[in-house]
Each structure stands twice: as structure tokens, then as C-alpha cells.
Amino acid sequence: MSSDQSGDDEGEATLENQLKSMYERYRRQHLEDELEAVATTMEETLLQQSIAETFFGESIDIDNNVKTAVEATVEKLEAGEYDAVESELDDLSTKVDRADTRVTNRIQQFRIDRQDTATAMRRLNERVERIDGTQLRALESLLDDWNWKEEVYVESNETFAERREAAAQYGKDMKMVFETLKEQLFGVYEDTELRPLVNDLLDDDRLRLGDLTPKERQQLADSDLANYIELKLS
């Protein structure tokens, strides 16, 4: 074999190795990007689960197998098992999206319920002027915008454990604000005959007017709660 032919073969082999190396780098980067998106969705789903528990007092089940599968796939990527990751990624993404949709939809319903109550509270307060209206408007805005990520994804929360703790605290803070404003608005009925009815309203129970006695209906009609009930039923 001539030296020129040998040099050409070595050059082709070198080019082939370079292309293969470039492909592997591209493949790894692509899988990393795809898996990072899946892992981020999984994390946000778990964070909203924490908020649901501490703010709304609701437990939303998430299949632990899905979270475990995400962790296992990340380990495979780090180990260079690209074929395995590639074969699992689509199914894993579908499962994570399904969990995220379920949690997001439940959160949406809880949030709308609270927002409806906050709106009715604000409109009632505009009539009775019992508390600072700016606080109620701020509460409505928080429930409407639902920018919980701004409170959780901050520089000081470097780990998932820290972010999950921050999410739980955000839920607790929102609950405290919501309950405090309700008590300030309706606490005036403490130790009155209307208090049991107020408790039903505060617990978001549907108030059945047909179940009330004539005296209770008259008491409601004579109180500023009549406006609130009208708003709740509208």
C-alpha cells in the first residue's frame, strides 16, 4: 500500500471518528434537554402538590412510580445508556404530563373556588366597609395570577427539598391571609345566632335556603350577609 493511500485511509478513519463523536455529543445534549424538561415538569407537579396540601387542605395523589422512573432515567443518562433513555423518554414524558395535568386541573378548581369567595367578600366589603379593601383586592390578584413560582424558584432555594419546603410555606402563607381576611370580615357574627350559618359559608358549604327556619331567613335578610349570599348563589 502506498503512503498516499495509507494517509487517505487514516484521514477517513479520523473524519469518521470525529463525526461519530459529534453525533454522540449532539445525541447526549438532545436527550439531556428532553429529560430536563420532563424532570422540570415532574418537580413543578410535586411542588403544586405541596401547595394544595398546605393552602387548600387537599391531598392530590401522584403515582410514586412516575417520580421513581424519572430518577432512574436520569441515572441512565448519566451512565451513558443513551439507547435505554431514548426508548423510555416518550412513555415517561406522557406519564409525567398526565400527572401534571391532573394536579393542575385540581389546583385550578380549588383556586377558582377560593377566588369566587374572595370576590364575593370584596363586593360585600364594598357595602359594609368592614376591612381594608386593598387587602381583599390583593388576595384576588394573587389567586388570579397564581405566580407561586416567583416565591419558590429563588436563588436561595438551591435544592428540590428547599423548593418543596418553600412551596409548602407559600401555601401556608396564602391560607393564613385568606383565613385572616375571612375572620376579619365575618368575625363580627361571633356569639350570635347567625354564627352557625356564617360557619357554613366560611366552610364553602352550599347554604340551602329551604333548610332554614323562617326566623333564620329573616335574620339573614336583615343582616348584611344577604348581599353575600346573593353573590354566592349568583
Describe the structure in your own words.
- The structure is a single chain.
- The termini are far apart.
- The mean pLDDT is 85.
- With 234 residues, this protein is mostly helical.
- It has nine helices and no strands.
List keywords for this structure.
single chain, 234 residues, mainly alpha
| Alpha-carbon Rg, integer | 28 Å
The general outline is: elongated
Helix count, DSSP H or I runs of 4 or more residues:
9
Summing up helix and strand content along with how strands pair, one would put the structural category as mainly alpha
| Strand percentage | under 5%
The separation of the N and C termini measures: 93 Å
Main pleated sheet? none
What integer is the average pLDDT? 85
Number of strands: 0
Secondary-structure element order, as H and E? HHHHHHHHH
Q: How would you name the oligomeric state of the polypeptide chains in this document? A: single chain
Share of helical residues: over 70%
Which residues form runs of ≥5 with pLDDT under 50? none
